[in-house]
Amino acid sequence: MADQVPQIITGRFGYEDSHTLARYEATGGYQALRTALAMRPEQVVEEVKTASLLGRGGAGFPAGVKWGFCPQAVWPRYLVVNGDESEPGTYKDRLLLEKDPHQLIEGVLLTSYAVGCGQAFLYVRGEMALAQERLAQALNDAYAAGYIGRNILGSDFSVDVVLHWGAGAYIVGEETALIESLEGNRGMPRLKPPFFPAAKGLYLQPTIVNNVETLSNIPWIVANGGAAFAELGAEASRGTRMFAVSGHVRNPGVFEVEFGVTTFRDVIYGEQYAGGIREGHTLKAFIPGGASAPWFFDEHLDLPLEKGAVDRAGSMLGSGAIVVMDDSTDAVKACHRVVRFFARESCGKCTPCREGTTWLEKILKRILDGYGRPSDLALLLDVADNISPGFAWPPKQTTICPLGPSAVSPIMTAVERFRVEFEDHIRRGMQAQAAQAPQQPVAVRSAEVRDAAHG
Fold this sequence. Notes:
Layout: H1 21-26, H2 31-37, H3 41-51, H4 63-67, E1 78-83, H5 92-99, H6 101-115, E2 119-124, H7 129-144, E3 160-165, H8 175-182, E4 207-211, H9 212-216, H10 218-224, H11 226-230, E5 233-234, E6 237-238, E7 240-247, E8 253-258, H12 264-269, E9 283-287, H13 307-312, E10 321-326, H14 331-345, H15 351-368, H16 376-387, H17 403-417, H18 419-435, H19 446-453
Parallel strand pairs: 1-2, 1-4, 2-3, 7-10
Antiparallel strand pairs: 5-6, 7-8, 9-10
Helix pairs in contact: 2-6, 2-10, 3-6, 5-7, 14-15, 14-17, 15-16, 15-17, 16-17, 17-18, 18-19
């Protein structure tokens, strides 16, 4: 399968100098820009719509449709590239920035031309030092070669591209929080409506926000045609997509696969991909789309990597991160690790998220430390329900952005599937406390813990 699928955005990864302008030009780089400049901007938009390119940042919204949301005749308008890849287990965009920055830059230029942006902003996560350095050098080289700036390649198209380094806040991966950060404010999400970025974005002007991987596909689409891209993948998930596989597998890494056709089993067990579970162990669970996604299990392995199929099964492809957990994993510890991340990364703007995620982390920590109570499972689910009522999918939320419900996802699935592990932690903790106080013996049985937890 891997040999039959064109490597649309990872084809240069095999070159040691893949990040340089010389290599990019030698492998067809910036030819799509020349092609586009001979077209009308609306023709470029139509090619992307024909390609049915879904956003690769998490939401999966069609890129070409998103571009069309800018109100007519409202100027200036901006393009913002979301390179604040922060979801635990996700590192595909970082590799694109490090190994092929010119591909992204050409995608930015093509999008700016299609949408009518005179200025673009590349927002890169603060911890990605190598990505920042290579992207900065690539921008300098592209300016010097005449690909960015005034009257590009002798045309009447002009654009400036600004590189902005983030400070490492997870929340600015949310597009309106990223815009707040770009404006020099604390990164906190804006209310939608009225602040839909396409209408009121950066400096309250129309703004297109796209993910790194999304824009990296644009040069191939323009060069080869949207129809060629749409021939790959499934009906509702066209082209190829990158997935970062980590955890208890033999060959963790980033793989570009045919979107909507390849299955989770292919990616996790395929020899050309992750190579299967580490020796002596079996699969216990896996997170299909970054830490904010509900967990999947054995029965989900044959689902295709297709947005609709995964959504209907109760989770999401999200940020393109598959985290594999084998049978040695303590579900309570894994759940705590994820919840702790979201609790610490909450911006604090919304009370249910600020208070709720902190309490979820404290309850899980109490259980792990041996001080859990029989009532803690009911309390855990009650707090989670106040953040994301009803545990529905897609999640309902009492917060402005989905960070709060992201902390609920691991609890919702782990407690449902591995409830006995939570009960055992509580039981062992109570037994240990009873052993330390022999003058007041307490007989604890797992059934009692279970009955009390169920209320």
